[in-house]
Design brief:
Elements: E1 6-11, E2 22-25, E3 38-46, E4 49-64, E5 67-80
Parallel strand pairs: 1-3
Antiparallel strand pairs: 2-5, 3-4, 4-5
């Protein structure tokens, strides 16, 4: 059984830390996943610092320029990589 998850990388754009945080990604949700809340690995990089936030996100339906806006619906934790 395969687990499907999103991967969002943020280069110094801000770390998600709680439910309701919003972030953006260059990829749109896969066809049929526009309304789904999916487990997400959010990688935050700033210089030598690398953190991984484990959460669930859902596409808000919004798009700004070429970026798709996602909102955190559940939050698990942040791990130092």
């Amino acid at each position: 059984m395969a687990i499907k998850f999103r991967l969002i990388q943020s280069n110094n754009r801000g770390l998600v830390t709680k439910v309701g945080d919003r972030t953006f990604a260059s990829r749109r949700p896969a066809k049929g996943e526009e309304e789904l809340e999916l487990p997400t690995l959010f990688i935050w990089v700033n210089g030598n610092s690398r953190l991984l936030a484990r959460c669930w996100t859902k596409w808000t339906g919004e798009k700004i320029g070429d970026d798709f806006i996602y909102v955190v619906t559940k939050f698990l934790d942040v791990l130092d990589l």
